[in-house]
Amino acid sequence: MLAGQLGGEIDGAWWPHTASVATELPELVGALHRALGEIVDIRINWSVTEGQLDLETIATGARLMRAGEHYRRPRLMVVVGRTASAKLLVVPSMTSQALGLMVLRTAAGLPTSGGTGDSRLFETARVVMQLAEAESAKWCNPISS
User: Fold this and answer.
1) CA distances from residue 53 to 29, 60, 102, 113, 126 in whole angstroms, order as listed
2) What's the CA angle centered on 46, arms 18 and 140, to 5 degrees?
3) What are phi and psi of 134, to 5 degrees?
4) pLDDT digits (tens, 9 = 90+) for 72-93
5) Which of 83, 115, 100, 75 is nearest to 6 (CA)?
6) Backbone φ, ψ for residue 36 (5° rounding)
7) Rounded to an integer, what distance in angstroms lies between the CA atom of residue 11 and that of residue 29?
8) What is the C-alpha separation between 15 and 3, in angstroms, rounded?
9) Which of 18, 44, 56, 144 is deepest in the core (most CB within 10 A)?
10) Would you state the pLDDT for residue 144?
């Protein structure tokens, strides 16, 4: 799901159906072709050897973090097309449907539930997006020396 306007720290989110991201990439490339043009590059901010964590664990770890500690960062992907590029938060496949949908909508800049519903879920989605935006600022826009 993409935001209406690209160029933010996070332009949308992708929620693969399984943990096999490579298997699902052709579907993502096809879905993004219209918005980005022919896809020419894809970059990720994680190692294939890192196990995926659910978003609830990532958000909880960041909330409990003390000074000097590191938290598991959200997975990001930059998809570069011939006409545009998009920075995507990759929602882990094991994420609950309720949280996954809320994160997809939040990442795309869409309204969530209009103030009703599970406030804990909304707070988790908000923390995940803050972490993703901070990671995007560091990873996608490194300070050059």
Assistant:
1) 24, 11, 17, 25, 17
2) 120
3) -65, -45
4) 678 999 999 999 999 999 999 9
5) 83
6) -110, -10
7) 15
8) 15
9) 56
10) 44
